[in-house]
Amino acid sequence: MWVNENGSIGYHISTLAKQFARLDAQTARQRIETLLDAHVQASPENAHPKPVPQLTRAVSAPGAKTAAQDLTDIKNKLDAHVKKWSNLAGDIFLLDGDINRATALGDATMARHLQSKLDARNAEMQKLIAETRSHVMLPAGERGKVSFNHFTPTTKAAALAGAKLAESYIHPSLLPTVNAVDFNRNRAAHYRGMLLINLKTDASTVMHEITHAVEQQSPHILKASQDFLKKRAGNESSQKLSDLTGNKEYKAYEEAYEDEFFSRGGEHYAGKIYPDATELLTMGIERLHENPVEFYSNDPEYFDFVIHTLQQP
Predict the structure, then answer these.
(1) pLDDT band at 8 (very low <50, low <70, confident <90, very high)
(2) Do 128 and 192 share a domain, yes or no?
(3) Does one domain contain both 20 and 89?
(4) Is the dihedral of CA 162, 167, 170, 176 positive or negative?
């Protein structure tokens, strides 16, 4: 396998056939994954620095509004929902514990009653999330388009769904040009403008990978992210993600700064370290979509950074 000048991954069928002919299926699969890791994991998001490609980005039409969101206005709108979110989150937490206790005691009637109340609170929370998303999304008439040079047949639907989501949160001038390539692995990825996804990749994950392309294709966005990560990390040393998360599927070389990403409601993965990429905007935009008022309430500094960087370039 090798990487072509255009960033695509090439391979020689005859050579691969000879290499794998005497291997059992499990060993062959592991060998293929190792070969992929040598290229995909050595992307700008993972290991060796690569020059930033000069790709065309979508821009607003002449005379169009800037689509920049006023951060103060957004925060004022979210402030009106913080108390309701806090009350709902508290109720959901307590009800979940009560259901577990009722179940442990064998009180099925009480468990069903509590589950009904929990379902109602969760429905209220989803309604609140939908309402607060409208405060952090760009106005529909001011959104741009992610540009696709190529789809594989099995990636088109997922790619377009993720792009539509990304367009809701990212300023038109930052939207990247990408390709969507079928990648039959559990973890989606981004490699030099290629979205490595498949037909099962959900829209939020595709948006995550598109945001990697935003960072890669906009040097000032990358610098802002790197500076913010350094600020948050301070003097702390990096740690293995497998140790921070307890997830041993992370490779030994995958490290992150702990900071307070997890304790403030996010994921340790947000602090992941790369030579020339970060996971700040990718994880931040997913969190912004998942529950804007939770993000704003629990980690206001990170929230401000994501809104300011992606919507006010």
Answers:
(1) very low
(2) no
(3) no
(4) positive
